[in-house]
């Protein structure tokens, strides 16, 4: 559990857990801190993939099925124990959706709310187009891929940090390309509400398709900023208030 999940503030009396799925090339350092910002009703878990942070010595995951199976098997007890919601940003959106589909199909479990951010809807042509991009080996080509997959954001100036980020990003991009949202799976829509967020200065994402993936309500919010708009304190504050209200209303 500690290997897969970062939880900076345990809240045994919380009424709901928010499981966060970070963006490509990153770890748990940013989203896990949300655990200190939510009130006592929401406990925050952030997913940590192999190949980074305390899992640095482990080989990167090779396919999304392996990732989904690890997350569901490790967290199944917690997910059955009390209500949960998902937040995914960029690459993390696709990972969270893959986990949500698996939980619904195999265990009949569903989040009380899906919060998706800065990503194409998985039933859109834009998603399929990004998924089919050939990943280059040379560093300059990788930079272009980072812009396509990751949107507009500043990269680290430190060369060693840039190299480490680029390597992790490339492995996450390979992982993203193993996502497979089959039509049969998509025919089992969710009943929970879905909220979609994006940055006003980021690239344009095709997000309309989220409406087709749930019988619940779907809402869309554009916040000021680039691909990592969610790290701006004012946006972070908005997200946390909005998610708290949505979660409490969904219980």
Describe this structure in words.
The chain is an alpha/beta fold and 251 residues long. It has a single domain (5-250), classed as 3-Layer(aba) Sandwich (Rossmann fold). The protein has 8 helices and 7 strands. The protein has a 7-stranded mixed beta sheet, with helices on both faces. It is globular, with a radius of gyration of 17 Å. Residues 17-244 form the Thioesterase domain. InterPro entries: AB_hydrolase_fold, TEII, Thioesterase. It holds the Pfam family Thioesterase. This is oleoyl-[acyl-carrier-protein] hydrolase.
Please tag this protein with its features:
about 250 residues, alpha/beta, Rossmann fold, seven-stranded mixed β-sheet, 7 strands, Thioesterase, oleoyl-[acyl-carrier-protein] hydrolase, TEII
Quick recap of the structure?
This protein has 251 residues and is an alpha/beta fold. The protein is built from 8 helices and 7 strands; from the N terminus they run ββαβαβαβααααββα. Strands 1-3-2-4-5-6-7 form a 7-stranded mixed beta sheet, sandwiched between helices.
- Tell me the strand percentage band: 15-25%
The side-by-side strand order for the widest beta sheet comes to 1-3-2-4-5-6-7
Q: How many domains in all?
A: 1
- The CATH first-level class comes to Alpha Beta
Low-confidence stretches: none
User: CATH superfamily, called what?
Assistant: Alpha/Beta hydrolase fold, catalytic domain
Stated plainly, the CATH topology is called: Rossmann fold
The biggest sheet, with number of strands, parallel, antiparallel or mixed sense and barrel status, is: 7 strands, mixed
Care to count the β-strands?
7
Query: What's the pLDDT, averaged over the residues?
Result: 91
Spatial separation of the terminal alpha carbons: 25 Å
């Amino acid at each position: 559990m500690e290997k897969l999940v970062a939880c900076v503030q345990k809240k045994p009396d919380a009424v709901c857990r928010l499981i966060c799925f970070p963006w490509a090339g990153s770890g748990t350092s940013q989203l896990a801190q949300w655990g200190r910002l939510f009130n006592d009703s929401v406990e925050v878990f952030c997913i940590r993939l192999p190949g980074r942070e305390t899992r640095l010595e482990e080989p990167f995951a090779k396919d999304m099925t392996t990732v989904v199976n690890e997350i569901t098997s490790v967290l199944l007890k917690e997910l059955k124990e009390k209500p949960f919601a998902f937040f995914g940003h960029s690459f993390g959106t696709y990972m969270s959706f893959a986990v949500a589909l698996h939980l619904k199909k195999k265990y009949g479990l569903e989040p009380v709310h899906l919060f998706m951010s800065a990503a194409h809807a998985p039933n859109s042509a834009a998603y399929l187009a990004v998924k089919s991009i050939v990943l280059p080996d040379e560093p300059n080509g990788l930079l272009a891929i980072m812009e396509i997959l990751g949107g507009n954001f500043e990269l680290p100036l430190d060369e060693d940090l840039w190299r480490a980020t680029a390597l992790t990003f490339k492995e996450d991009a390979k992982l993203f390309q193993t996502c497979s949202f089959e039509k049969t799976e998509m025919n089992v829509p969710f009943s929970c509400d879905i909220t979609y967020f994006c940055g006003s200065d980021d690239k344009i994402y095709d997000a309309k398709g989220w409406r087709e993936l749930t019988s619940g309500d779907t809402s869309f919010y554009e916040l000021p900023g680039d691909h990592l708009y969610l790290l701006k304190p004012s946006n972070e504050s908005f997200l946390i208030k909005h998610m708290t209200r949505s979660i409490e209303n969904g219980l």
